[in-house]
Fold this protein.
Amino acid sequence: MKIVKKIILIAIVLAFVGAIVYKAVWSKPAQTAGGSSGLARAALPVNLQVIKPESFTETLPVTGSVEANESVILKSEVSGKIIGIFFSEGQHVARGTLLIKVYDDDLQAQLTKAQANLKLNEDQEARQRQLLDKEAVSRQEYDVSYANLQAAQADIALLESQISKTEIMAPFDGVIGFRKVSPGEYITPGTDIASLVNNDPAKIQFSVPEKYSQMLGRNTVIKYRLEGQPGERTASVYAVEPTIDQATRTMQLKALAPNQDGRLIPGAFARIQVQMETQNNVVLIPAESILSETAGQKVYLYRGGKVQPVMVETGTRTNNRVEIVKGIVPGDSVITTGMMQITPRTIVTPDKIN
């Protein structure tokens, strides 16, 4: 009887253990297969952008500097002592205004003598011409008197030119800078006297990468801002350097900028936005949807309910979007969120479609 009781007890224990194992093994698959709640929890919600061609105007950000319309360092053409300074520092002067006078008394004395000699030669040439008409002198004698007259005239022209160089005039309208000489100072042709600047209109000089050299030209409108000054200004390109700088692979341009208020100071730093030509049928996607890898750049597409990685080639970049030139076509759905969590076996579900 004891043996029978042991057998029955063992059978009960085995049955109980078997029931527990059966429940553990078979109940979990049945629960998963019996509903979609487990699959829904495993799917990653993502945002999609459906690709549509767009019109796009590229804005190229570059830096440049302000230049004066005209600028010169005033110097003397002759050596001598300064006997007069006729300008103030910071003064606006008109073209032709006398700025500096250099001592010229010796030249004036020579001019007076040359003028007297000219009068003598003029009278001599007139008498010789009358005698030549009467055949009272030879042609050779008249030619000598005529040559002396021409020499006297040349002497006066030379002296007048030398005297004019003792007067330094403003070559254009502008503002005089700091004075670097004083009355009574002896100056030479290498002596700096002052700067003269005309900055209305001002010039904006800047460079663009070589690849844009065929897209820009005369009359291209640019927008720019100056450091420390509010507001945006506009200027128009008036000159393009005909060669590419081989060291920087850039092309230089200059634009004219109105400066009636005088706020554009030569040498100032400018932040420039160059408006390029509008392009049609451009594919643009958010910059954050692109992943950089060793092999290149990649995006994830949502096709047929599955994730598909695609290598792409990019073009122009804006602040938050990137042009795709190869790899994506209109109608594709690009995943724009959760890219770092996606693997080839990840199941995703669209959460928001743009």
In short: Residues 215 and 276 are 7 Å apart (CA to CA). The chain has three domains: 44-56+280-353, 61-69+198-279, 72-196.
